[in-house]
Amino acid sequence: MGNHSLLVISGASGVGKSTVLHRIFAALPQLQFSVSATTRPPRPGERDGVDYAFLTREEFHKRIAKNEFVEYDEHDGNLYGTPWKELDKANAAPLLLDIEPMGALSVKERRPDAVLIFVTAPMEEIARRLSERGDTPPEQIAMRLRRAEWEIAQAPKYDYIVTNDQVDTCAEEIISIIAREAEISIGGN
């Protein structure tokens, strides 16, 4: 407990993590967000350098060669990574990384002080959420469900496991964990 400035959150695809993250940042405005790099194209409303650092595959590979990433991974045909320089932000204020389990475990290996939080949900609920999005073809849903099973199997390696069966309760539990671990007050004071 106390004064952990590097926090990592992971969760299976379709677990509702994005909604939970919005609530966390609203309740803890002093918390900084680590901007990951990716080769995927921006989605509507996403801004370069704010939501992600959008890179070409060539640029991403150049940065890998220069050892500029704490961790990186490829999924759904795109590369994602956490630049080392993002971790420097944790010196100024608590920093939250939203990354996949493989990356989270790499960060923990390099920074044992990092606090890992895993968000999970029952598989039936994940399947329902993925199919309700309406923008994911059935074969993609099947692939994401297989990946979700693997991701959930990594949860015991985390410091905390929080089930998102009710968004408000899940967000409140994670906000409480972060506030306690990073020694910050809820509401920004």
Write up this protein.
By secondary structure, the chain is of the alpha/beta class. The two termini are 19 Å apart. It is globular and about 45 Å long. The longest helix has 17 residues, at 138-154. Helices cover 41% and strands 21% of the residues.
Short description:
The chain is 41% helix and 21% strand. The protein is of the alpha/beta class. The chain is globular, with a radius of gyration of 16 Å.
Q: Return the average pLDDT rounded to an integer.
A: 91
C-alpha end-to-end distance: 19 Å
Question: How big is the Rg?
Answer: 16 Å
Shape: globular
Largest beta-sheet details:
5 strands, parallel
Order of strands in the sheet with most strands: 2-7-1-8-9
| Proportion in helices | 40-55%
Question: Topology as H/E string?
Answer: EHEEEHEEHEHEHHEH
Give the helix/strand class.
alpha/beta
Tell me the strand percentage band: 15-25%
Low-confidence stretches: none
What is the multimeric organization of the chains shown?
single chain
Q: Count every helix, treating DSSP H or I runs of 4 or more residues as helices.
A: 7
What is the β-strand count? 9
Summarize the helices and strands and which ones pair or pack.
Layout: E1 6-11, H1 17-27, E2 32-33, E3 37-38, E4 53-54, H2 57-65, E5 69-75, E6 78-83, H3 84-87, E7 95-98, H4 101-110, E8 115-120, H5 123-132, H6 138-154, E9 160-163, H7 167-182
Parallel strand pairs: 1-7, 1-8, 2-7, 3-4, 8-9
Antiparallel strand pairs: 3-6, 5-6
List keywords for this structure.
189 residues, alpha/beta, five-stranded parallel sheet, globular, 7 helices, four-stranded mixed sheet
